[in-house]
Amino acid sequence: MEPSPSLETVPTPALVLDRGRCERNARRMGERMATRGVGLRPHLKTAKCAEVAALAIRGHPGGVTVSTVREAAWLAERGLRDVRLAVCPSPTSAEGSARLAAEGVRLSCLADSLAGVALLAEAAARHGTRLAVLVEVDTGEHRTGVPPESEALLAVARAVHAAPQLELAGVLTHGGHAYGVASRQELAAVAEQERAGVVAAAARVRDAGLPCPEVSAGSTPTASVVEDLSGVTEMRPGVYLFGDVFQAGLGTCALDDVALTVLTTVLAVRPDEGQLVLDAGGLALSKDRSTSGRPDDAGYGLVCDLAGKVLPGLRVDDVHQEHGAVRHVPVEVLGRVQVGDRLRVLPVHACMTAAAHDRYQVVDGDGPDVVALWERCNGW
Ligand SMILES: Cc1ncc(COP(=O)(O)O)c(C=O)c1O
After folding, report:
1. Cα of 66 to ligand 1 centre, how many Å?
2. Whose CA is nearest to atom 3 of ligand 1?
3. 116-166: per-residue pLDDT in tens?
4. Residue nearest to atom 15 of ligand 1 (CA)
5. Is 245 helix (H, G, I), strand (E, B) or coil?
6. For the purposes of burial, counting CB atoms within 10 Å of the CB of 298, is it exposed (0-12), middle (13-18) or buried (19 or more)?
7. How close is the Cα of 46 to the center of ligand 1, in Å?
8. pLDDT band per the 50, 70, 90 thresholds, residue 97
9. CA distance between the termini of the chain
10. Rounded CA separation 295/299 (Å)
11. Radius of gyration (Cα) for the chain, nearest Å?
């Protein structure tokens, strides 16, 4: 008989998801949004997984957000058929969106330019279907989107409304600049800037005699602190489902809430260098250094024991493709670790770390048993 899969035996490096923590994170955010009277449309760009989506929408209307057409198709095949693609269109993504809409998926898209509107309208016409479109508004992130007070906002909204293949579904923003703040107070200010900006955009669209039923906002940091969401109809946080070391530094979760770790094996114990070398390098952990320059700089991730308990002071300081070096390891710790031992690493940025892995080894609690394997849909 095959032994049951366990963190003691599965090949490493491997991506481990703690289902209990993920459910708790989902429930907390769900309650937060419900008590503030807005819908939750979780962003699945981090999880890229139908099983995680299912637990994220429990008790909510069921709509989800994605960042690629591939995620949209993957989730739709698995029964999630109200999908918002929250990235402005390219010719190929417009084509993919229209194909899914023609197959009966309730797909909504973004546009922030007349060229984007044309791509969506032409693709929808080619597939004999209609697409719902939200105008993307830039409330301070300065990535994509039109400023709330701009002429472009109304020009894009009018173009969507005028296209027979498109339906103007509303306005949408992402307060991604929340990631750059230094304090909770500043974070609350960004959350209000996001809310006020998108609500002002909706008012201008309505004042121009156009429909604007949906007013969509959100990131994990803003959704985690915001109190007043008047005028907003839905929020779209995503990384809250897992959390990570960066989010813990922002104060949107505790390290004990982080549901994602990378399981790794010790390849070398080097007392001469005060160093442990792991089989989790840049590919398995990512080279995201979001916490660099902060007092809580976690290098490429915080080292934990096999049960997921953080080992104080140990972080992955350096990575090669398949090696991760933990430096400045106290002698007494080096004396307890052997080649072949297993550890876990808490990721700095869950979205980037998860991206190199094609599945989750799902665990529940501190035990080593792998209770399920959940597939991810990477790529484009
Ligand atoms: C448009 C959009 N909405 C929502 C989110 C989710 O935000 P977070 O990753 O902070 O959970 C993102 C993340 O990049 C996004 O780009």
Report:
1. 9
2. 174
3. 999 999 999 999 999 999 999 999 999 999 999 999 999 999 999 999 999
4. 174
5. helix
6. buried
7. 9
8. very high
9. 39
10. 11
11. 22
Atom of ligand 1 nearest to the CA of 240: 11
CA of 143, closest atom in ligand 1: 16
Average pLDDT over residues 70-75: 98
pLDDT of residue 60: 87
Which protein residue's CA is at the shortest distance from atom 12 of ligand 1? Answer: 219
**What tokens were used for 56?**
């994220």
Ligand 1: list residues with CB < 6 Å.
43, 45, 86, 174, 176, 218-220, 236-240
Separation of CA 235 and ligand 1 centre (Å)? 10
Q: Is the pLDDT of residue 2 over 70?
A: no
pLDDT for residue 365 is more than 90: no
The rounded distance, in Å, linking the Cα atoms of 47 and 53 is: 8
Contacts of 293 (CB under 8 A, 6+ apart): none
Closest CA to 36 of 254, 237, 249: 237
User: Among all chains, which residue has been given the structure tokens 């660099």?
Assistant: 292
Cis geometry, peptide bond prior to residue 237 (ω within 30 degrees of 0): no
Tell me, in angstroms, the distance from the centre of ligand 1 to residue 212's CA: 21
For 349-359, the pLDDT digits (tens) are 999 999 999 99
Distance from residue 187's CA to the centre of ligand 1 (Å) = 15
For residue 45, the CA-to-ligand 1 centroid distance in Å is 8
Please name the residue whose Cα sits nearest to atom 7 of ligand 1: 219
Query: 183 with 191: CB under 8 angstroms?
Result: no
- The CB density around residue 90, as the number of other CB atoms within 10 Å, is 12
Q: What is the torsional sign of CA 81, 145, 211, 42?
A: positive
Q: Which residues contact 239 (CB under 8 A, 6 or more apart)?
A: 43, 46, 220, 247, 350, 351
